[in-house]
Design a protein that fits this description.
- The chain has one domain: 3-Layer(aba) Sandwich (Rossmann fold).
- The protein is built from six helices and eight strands, in the order E-E-E-E-H-E-H-E-H-E-H-H-E-H.
- The strands form two sheets. A six-stranded parallel β-sheet has the order 2-1-5-6-7-8, sandwiched between helices. The chain has a two-stranded antiparallel sheet with strand order 3-4.
- A hairpin with a 5-residue loop joins strand 3 and strand 4.
- The longest helix has 20 residues.
- InterPro entries: AB_hydrolase_fold, LYPA1-2/EST-like, PLipase/COase/thioEstase.
- Pfam families: Abhydrolase_2.
- GO terms for molecular function: carboxylesterase activity; carboxylic ester hydrolase activity.
Length: about 220
């Protein structure tokens, strides 16, 4: 059996990978001793909802706040998904068990996490979406979701007081996944605005820990 695990963290719009690295210090369980973390930074590109201003962005966003019915930019999303898949492929080539690969992301990174997990051809350990949304809706993309991908567990966490990616955008996630044929654990956090809190990250740690495959 392959040993070790891989956790990929995808940041939100205008943020950077290194700014999120402190998250890994919260994962203190011995099960994470052989975990490789990666906090990539998005490329700088023009963002429509910010009047074309250049900023770190995984794909284009047309409007903020993001609602359950916001327009999606599928072509730029699919390019971003491709770059995430290359990162996963590299870990699998190095001997990591796909079921020990976890994708996590906040906001735009959460939307990208969801799309990357759904469009990856293998079953992964899990995808955790924080304050994210469903960034595609065309049937041609939905048809590309393999039976293997549908077995990847999804954890979805969203603050009820979110004014940037509205709670309704998060709430649209579980029915969408159900329609695709997937299960999702949805956690609502009362009073939480567009940010992460320690409760969410503590739950993420135990959620990943319970899914790690041992190398025995």
């Amino acid at each position: 059996m392959a040993s070790g695990s891989f956790i990929l963290w995808l940041h939100g719009l205008g943020d950077s990978g290194p700014a999120n690295e402190p998250i890994q210090s919260l994962f203190t369980s011995p099960q994470f001793a052989n975990t490789r973390w990666s906090f990539p930074s998005a490329p700088s590109q023009p963002v429509t909802c910010n009047y074309g201003a250049l900023m770190p962005s995984w794909f284009d966003i047309h409007e903020i706040p993001v609602t359950a019915n916001s327009p999606v930019d599928e072509s730029s999303l699919l390019k971003a998904v491709q770059s995430v898949h290359i990162m996963i492929d590299k870990e699998l080539a190095a001997g990591i068990d796909p079921k020990n690969v976890f994708l996590c992301g906040f906001s735009q990174g959460g939307a990208l996490t969801l799309a990357s997990v759904l469009l990856y051809p293998k079953t992964l350990g899990g995808g955790a979406v924080f304050s994210g949304w469903v960034p595609f809706n065309s049937s041609s993309i939905i048809e590309r979701i393999t039976p293997e991908a549908k077995r990847t567990p999804i954890l979805w966490s969203h603050g009820i007081a979110d004014g940037t990616v509205l709670f309704e955008a998060g709430q649209a996630g579980p029915p969408f996944l159900q329609h695709v044929g997937m299960n999702c654990e949805f956690k609502a956090y009362p009073g939480l605005a567009h940010s992460l809190n320690s409760q969410e990250l503590q739950h993420l740690e135990s959620w990943i820990k319970s899914r790690l495959q041992s190398s025995s």
